[in-house]
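Hey,

Quick one before I head out. I ran the complex with FE2/S2 (inorganic) cluster overnight. Inputs first:
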Amino acid sequence: MKKILHFILNGEPVEMEIEPHLTLLQVLRDRLEMTGTKEGCGMGECGACTVLLDGKSVNSCIYPALEVEGRNVTTIEGLMNSRGNLHPIQKAFIEHGAIQCGFCTPGMILSAKALLDENPHPTEEEIRNGIAGNICRCTGYLQIIQAIKAVSQKT
Ligand code: FES
Ligand code: FES
């Protein structure tokens, strides 16, 4: 039997009817067409599907959609400001060459945001730990770490 789900997505209220077995990733990509959130492993291991739930990073591929009832979800589409400007972390990823194929990038940026919101001046080790759940097959991580470090040094 379908259930009604209400939550806040990127600052906007959402109300929808869903099958109770759906994951948050399925709701975001297949029902709401928010395709910035990627599906990699589908098993909670690669971080491509990372979104923020009340500011904390979660793997949406293994997160039951009904458990976001009444909560705040942020996807990569929600990071730009109302004037269409990229978030400073997005700008830093571009400036530091931290994006190659881009598949890991939305999840990586959201993990970086969760880290910097909690700890605005992380050490390199803390940055590495903060993105430990996000796998990148292209960059070797160095440029990603440099981009996150650059943002932390600007604030
Ligand atoms: S797709 Fe969710 S962790 Fe890999
Ligand atoms: S840029 Fe390709 S997986 Fe990270």
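The first strand starts at residue 3 and ends at 9.

Talk tomorrow,
K.
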